């Protein structure tokens, strides 16, 4: 086994600022040191304290203009939508029919799927994202291709085959039975293989029959620790359609609830137009919401109510929702999140933002023992930000007072250029 050390400014969250207050929610080392043994964090602290503990032959990488953070966690993204990012002019239901479904049709071809998966993962790593909860397409091979590509970099990734048996083109539909069977086969092949996990992935209520949702719930309850990943209450027309399609249900979430799809490992993208009883039920079941600001603005869905989620103690993580979202960058996603909260006359603090993009995401995915911060014994997934990445970032950071303001500047001006290097399980997976 080999030790490696990084000397730089370091920041990470240790709790939710909502629960313990901002000051108690993070640790910051202005001249810090991170020591990694194999794939895990061995020590974190002040360089002055940790330098003397190192053998003289231990490699120390010094980044005087760096800021180390945990790797970012994207709790909702579609890898097959990589090449249709920035599709013009539509809201959800028309956007799906016009752009998304034709694009996803290409993923019956495994060679195509693997090509996109490789480029998708490179893009995530360029942006400092080391873990993501990812939609495949309806095609089983799309998920094989994604996991095979993830294995190459030893990334902690979660993915699933889309289940959809109605209200979509024939070339993109499965049946309740084939979706159950193929999902089960994928679970048996990939779930908990290395750092990989499986998510049962019904696209959203309108594209699944009652029978399909029922089988999805049955499958979820056959395993202890498989995920469930879907969309919830994103767009007003979508919500009205769900009411029509499921007249027996009390509300949108209740469609999933009645099919036993709410669990501690269930993640619902968006959750914009929810009533109090839906927040309450999400809390009760330990389910999480993925907040996807760039998507919610770009396809005109609405403003996520973070205060409501907090009030009801619902777990929240950040999602880019590419290709409805417009950036792979978690920094840019937090920039838009700040504006979404501003439009509701509230503030999103930089420490809360960092929390949502790291430890909060890990908690939403029940992975906080493994990833999400730089605590000793956790997996060495981290990013080195570059304070000198661009002239503007450099001059603006030079004038910022304290780490909280610096972090906010990174989140406002930063993007892939600010990511100097990305590490997964102690190995460098991206370097600028
Ligand atoms: N709802 C159902 N499918 C999708 C999708 O692909 N993207 C988004 N943003 N919402 C959806
Ligand atoms: Fe989505």
What can you see in these coordinates?
There is one protein chain. With 432 residues, the chain is of the alpha/beta class. It folds into two domains: 3-71 and 372-431, Roll (Urease, subunit C, domain 1), CATH 2.30.40; 72-328, Metal-dependent hydrolases (TIM Barrel). The protein has 18 helices and 16 strands. The strands form two sheets. Strands 5, 6, 7, 8, 9, 10, 11, 12 and 13 form a nine-stranded parallel sheet that branches. Strands 3-2-1-4-14-15-16 form a seven-stranded mixed sheet. Helix 7 (176-190) links the parallel strand 8 (162-163) and strand 9 (196-202). The mean pLDDT is 98. It binds guanine and fe (iii) ion. The site of fe (iii) ion has 6 residues, from strand 5.
How would you summarize this macromolecular structure in one to three sentences?
Residues 68-428 form the Amidohydrolase-related domain. This protein is of the alpha/beta class and 432 residues long. It is 38% helix and 24% strand.
Bound molecules: guanine, fe (iii) ion
Strand content: 15-25%
* CATH classification class of the largest domain: Alpha Beta
CATH architecture of the largest domain: Alpha-Beta Barrel
What is the rounded Rg?
Answer: 21 Å
Largest sheet: 9 strands, parallel
Counting DSSP H or I runs of 4 or more residues, the number of helices is 18
Counted up, domains total: 2
Q: What number is the mean pLDDT?
A: 98
**Which fold name is given in CATH as the topology of the largest domain?**
TIM Barrel
| Number of β-strand runs | 16
Structural class: alpha/beta
Percent of residues in helices comes to: 25-40%
Please identify which CATH superfamily of the largest domain we are dealing with: Metal-dependent hydrolases
Shape: globular
Q: How many angstroms does the end-to-end distance come to?
A: 27 Å
Low-confidence stretches: none
Pfam families: Amidohydro_1
Function: Catalyzes the hydrolytic deamination of guanine, producing xanthine and ammonia.
Pathway: Purine metabolism; guanine degradation; xanthine from guanine: step 1/1
Family: Belongs to the metallo-dependent hydrolases superfamily. ATZ/TRZ family.
